[in-house]
Structure of Catalase:
Amino acid sequence: TQASAAQALVASLPHNSNKPGEIGHANAISPPEGQHADGAQPVVSASTLSEANASDKTRGPHAPGTNAWQGDLEAARADASGQVLTTNQGVAIADNQNSLKAGLRGPALLEDFILREKITHFDHERIPERIVHARGSAAHGFFECYEAIPDLTKAAPFQAAGKITPLFTRFSTVAGERGSVDTARDIRGFAVKFYTDEGNWDLVGNNIPVFFIQDAMKFPDLIHAVKPEPHHGMPQAASAHDTFWDFVSLMPESTHVLMWAMSDRAIPRSYRMMQGFGVHSYRLVNEQGQSQFVKFHWTPKLGVHSLVWDEALKIAGMDPDFHRRDLWEAIESGQYPEWELGLQVFSEEQAEQFSFDVLDATKIVPEELVPVRPVGRMVLNRNPDNFFAETEQVAFCVAHVVPGIDFSNDPLLAGRIHSYVDTQISRLGGPNFHELPINAPLAPVANNQRDGMHRRTVNRGRVAYEPNSLAGGCPFQAGAMKGFVSFPQPVQEDKVRGKPEKFADHYTQASLFFDSLTPPEQRHLAAGFRFELSKLTVPAIRERMVASLVNVSPELAAAVAEGLGIDVPAPLPRALETPAKPEVTQSARLSQKAFPGDGRIATRQVAMLVADGVDGAALAAVKSALEAEQAAVTLIAPKLGNVIAADGSKLAVRGTLENSPPVVFDAVVLPAGEAAVGALSQLGHTQEFIVNQYRHGKTLLALGEASALLDQAGIPRNLPDGSADPGVIEQAGGDAAAAAKAFIAALALHRHPARETD
Ligand code: HDD
């Protein structure tokens, strides 16, 4: 009903409204010259379901007395419906097709201020991309608190059950440039900006709970090593090259994160299906000034699911925007992604007892030691209006904390507190980036900071200092009750450059991760190392890395060495010969198996291959069963247009075998109908489609005669252990409804890795 309400809304919209144009509404075609939309139409209309979702940030006129660019985005939105074209000075433009010339065939004139303004603005359209995390996608949404936790923190979002805090979340890859592919093997950024009523809080995390290095001092080295090599600018968005592995193999503290980065975690199926982590130990501080450590966890409602590497590589060519499209389409269709926020809270005394150091960002706190307590949920329910203004200009800063949230002494975190503000100054052109609509807090801003590039605030009065008497002492200090007060952690030691002892245990938790995975996950991880290291040109780096892996797991090192065609080298010397005995050696919460999701197949992409002569009734039964579960079904045929079913009915085709490759679908349905099966069996594309689906562990359903297509593609019906493959379903004379049911159950399992034989 939500979707049909959105459609009705779309259908009722006027000419020239950009959004319906994007989703194929006929009225969006430009009106004829001289005719324009009725200027009385609302300037900003909610034309999609996603747009209709409002929060304090995304909608609503700004309150009297607040500045237009602070708080909600409404005041900054522009829509040209019913407007004439103007210059930036508001001068109406009569002709936007031709530059000013001395005669029709004469030279262009320097006087053409309209042309010069347009070209000059265009010349400066790009801003520097983020030095890391350049490629990303974002959405608006809200955080809802489950129950008040004032005993733990006074942070505004956690003060009442049901309290809603608007937020903006950006997901990203790390290494690739702005236009790079979404499915690269990489860590994913997971940055959340909470517009709390006590100021903005940015939780800038990743989808992996540990980091490559322990000290910010090494960050530029790490990034220089992973980015394209400086002499020839290759490879793009990939860590599979010499400089990266040279660096990390010399930095054994990276070993733990390498386990995650070579695992399926680094190739998520969707941004909607990955966890998020704050990574560092932060502090929660309550009203009484008491503090405990905290680690932040985001857990996706849809479960944690991944691609397989061969599939990720192919998607990179066939749909470089795979994750961006997935997020956008899910929100537009009303399937709002959701994550639960959980806290691991532990005291300083507890932390002292742990076998690892909680200030070391290469370590997790196993959930067996400190369970995760759910405290609220995040829902992303609105796509940005403008990619540049919002997704590109959003500026996350680790230094943006609110009363109730504070830092630990993690030395990586310390560097980050500096780096993010600093980078925005050059990326966004000055110190006033907080005034950009997407960055402006909902909470009022008042201080004596003034001027600078692109200043928008028009500060009134002659006072820009404190204390003052001329402005009645305003703005005045909030004092400890309302203002931010740093947690008074005692400090009394020598100034040194160095690391605490426990930081030197580089392998225990890497082994914990590997040993906690299922056999298919372990196989994928070994294959990840094999692929990356096989790309190196310097054999010594390869060997050094495998030597490091011997310390993690001799079994893993042997598998990787075998794949690389080398002997297992002697282990790398350890920095710490006798690390503390770990509390846990296996953790069920590290395998993706622990996060199957809610068992629903909503938004899963299902391809239905069709051709003339299909059995329309069987197909319709399966299609409606899938759509009842909110799966996204696409009919794919040899060409666009309509397919004529055996009963003469017409089926509208949405994709072709050429433009809709198997890798972007989670499952495939092969049609019944002798003629259709005959036609499809003549096409190489059909076999490739089926083989790819099978090899990537996906669910296949063959209706009626389509079992012949499985035979033609050589698809086994049994797993290597001889049992029936639950992911290959054949109707084989049974009824279509039963087949659809089995198909839906198998699709809910995400993949069928037991099938993998390569
Ligand atoms: Fe960072 C961006 C996450 C370590 C310096 N980082 C950036 C983004 C994410 C992270 C998600 C993108 C935000 C967005 O969507 O705009 N970074 C992390 C995590 C880290 C980490 C989880 C370790 C726990 N980062 C880190 C260090 C430094 C930086 C140690 C520097 C000392 N990161 C930056 C940056 C970026 C950035 C250069 C680039 C663009 C930006 O900040 O806005 O300042």
Summary: DSSP finds 21 helices and 18 strands in the chain. Residues 136-435 form a domain with the Catalase HpII,  Chain A, domain 1 fold (CATH 2.40.180.10).
